[in-house]
Amino acid sequence: MSAEFLITSLIVVASPGTGVLYTLAAGLSRGARASVVAAFGCTLGIVPHIAAAILGLAALLHTSAIAFQTFKYLGVAYLLYMAWATLRERGPLSIEKEVGARSALQVTVTGVLINILNPKLSIFFLAFLPQFVSADEAHPLGRMAELSGVFMLMTFAVFAIYGLFAAWLRDHVVTRPRVLTWMRRSFAAAFVALGAKLAVAER
Fold first, then answer.
1. Alpha-carbon gap, residue 161 to 42, rounded angstroms
2. Do residues 83 and 185 lie in contact, with contact meaning Cβ atoms separated by under 8 Å?
3. Domain boundaries, the chain
4. Which 3 state secondary structure label does DSSP give 26?
5. How far apart are the first and last CA of the chain?
6. What is the mean predicted confidence (pLDDT) over 20-46?
7. What would the pLDDT profile of 49-62 be if each residue is shown by its tens digit?
8. For residue 174, what pLDDT is reported?
9. How many Cα atoms within 13 Å fall on the side-chain side of residue 27?
10. Number of neighbouring beta carbons within 10 Å of residue 160
């Protein structure tokens, strides 16, 4: 495992995006357990994109305008829904004292959907993973699977750290209605901004 791969992966994972935003929101609103569950859900959402890249299916998104636009606008619609739900106090910033089994499932599913509905991830892995597989590699698919596993572990760890930090700040937020309102509006605006960014994304 090259240092270049690890450093590049860390930069990509730690960069603020929809997954980081959602994990932070989960930690702020529902606490440490929910933040870890959200990180897990976001990590699971990467699996289809990695599988698509390894199997070559991501090339379809790269070459087919219809397929790319379909996934893209589904992702945009979901991000706008997240923004609306956040403002309505039913989204990721809905305050709960405890996260039960049903809530944990909802947090996980939302995290999975956030990453699945982003076609840029498939294209990213299609371009990213092969760079770290040498031309004379005896088992290139196995090597890509290994690199993908490391990337996923790094994603989960970094997202969990983000979320746990947000959970640590939670007591300072939920006890202050004005701060919570400001945070809710800020997160909603961020979801809208990410949706707009995805809307103008090209293959």
1. 13
2. no
3. 30-199
4. helix
5. 29
6. 89
7. 888 877 766 556 55
8. 65
9. 23
10. 21
